[in-house]
Automatic annotation (TrEMBL):
<keyword id="KW-0227">DNA damage</keyword>
<keyword id="KW-0808">Transferase</keyword>
<dbReference type="Pfam" id="PF01035">
    <property type="entry name" value="DNA_binding_1"/>
</dbReference>
<dbReference type="InterPro" id="IPR036217">
    <property type="entry name" value="MethylDNA_cys_MeTrfase_DNAb"/>
</dbReference>
<dbReference type="InterPro" id="IPR001497">
    <property type="entry name" value="MethylDNA_cys_MeTrfase_AS"/>
</dbReference>
<keyword id="KW-0234">DNA repair</keyword>
<feature type="domain" description="Methylated-DNA-[protein]-cysteine S-methyltransferase DNA binding">
    <location>
        <begin position="89"/>
        <end position="169"/>
    </location>
</feature>
<keyword id="KW-0489">Methyltransferase</keyword>
<protein>
    <submittedName>
        <fullName>Methylated-DNA--[protein]-cysteine S-methyltransferase</fullName>
    </submittedName>
</protein>
<dbReference type="InterPro" id="IPR036388">
    <property type="entry name" value="WH-like_DNA-bd_sf"/>
</dbReference>
<dbReference type="InterPro" id="IPR014048">
    <property type="entry name" value="MethylDNA_cys_MeTrfase_DNA-bd"/>
</dbReference>
Amino acid sequence: MTLGTIEAQVLDTPAGPLAMLARRGVLLAAGFTTAGPEEMFARLSPELRAEGLALNGDLGGPARAVRDYLDGDLAALDAVPVEQPGTPTRQRLLTALRQVPAGVTISYAELAERAGLPRTAARAAGSACAQNLIAPFVPCHRVLPSTGGFGGYYYGTPVKRWLLTHEGAPAAERLRSREEAR
């Protein structure tokens, strides 16, 4: 075990193992990965990686929030403090993304608009989602392409589908029915 200031924990979830990294109670990375917390750690900036990784077993608040979310408190993840790098525009997009409630899906253009950007900034919204380091706490799974379907998701469409279904998003039910009909 490496002693470091960035602590890691992995929780088993119905969507797969969820690795989380935090420093002083603030979540820096989270994602569904079978490769463990090292995969998430590798995605951090060189400055953060220099702090080292500690596999401590229990992050406290973030772990409780995940358990509560899985038990049906769909707003539990919203209270966990998060921090990730990005330009001022990306920060506005991530803040707007964090305000999309569970059970609601929006388009990339709508995310841009909610961040105070023109709807034509949908590509920037897509980029912010693709580079999001803190899923599902920063819920990029709630953004769907306006052309239909689930779109991409760093951790795979089955994980995105599971999250949306767990949250009761009507779009997930419609999309699943369409896919099953094919």
